[in-house]
Amino acid sequence: MRLLLGIAAGLAAVTGISLLFLVPLFLALGPEHALVAGTLQFNTAWIGVALIVSLTAASIGGWIAHRVSDSIGAVFGLIALVLGFGLIDAGYHQWLAPAALALPGQLPWYELLLGLREPLWYDITLPLLMAAFIWVAGSSRQFEQHPDAGRGWLLGGAGSVRQKGGQPR
Prior knowledge:
By secondary structure, the chain is mainly α. It is built from 6 helices and 2 strands. It has helices at about 1-30, 30-35, 45-70, 70-95, 110-115, 120-145, and strands at about 165, 165-169. A two-stranded antiparallel sheet has the order 1-2. The radius of gyration is 21 Å and the shape is elongated.
């Protein structure tokens, strides 16, 4: 049960942080500053900000998933969900999203959000980078709690051949 709670808490953190920063920022800037002029594609500045916010959210979500569940399994579960949802979203934006014939100023904001497009490299790279950031943050929490668990036999971790005072560790 704690595993599922950790996954849900991590996913809520990633989603919540991303939505709390990016949606109000888009609404405050408006399409004229977030999109390439006359298109439904995000501009480079927006992609940079979105990348920073998303990777920060992924790091916090990975740490929270492990903190809540006390299990590295929740981190793996969160990674699987982020990769799955991220690649489904990429497929939607690249191949299934309706190609809006209207200009950004002619659509209501909720329809505009559904028709927006990111570059293909960003759509595919973002879930992979987020998974890496979730892993780093979640596994660092693992090492905080069990510093010898992942160090291996050479560095004195579990199964080490080092001896202390003539006795095996």
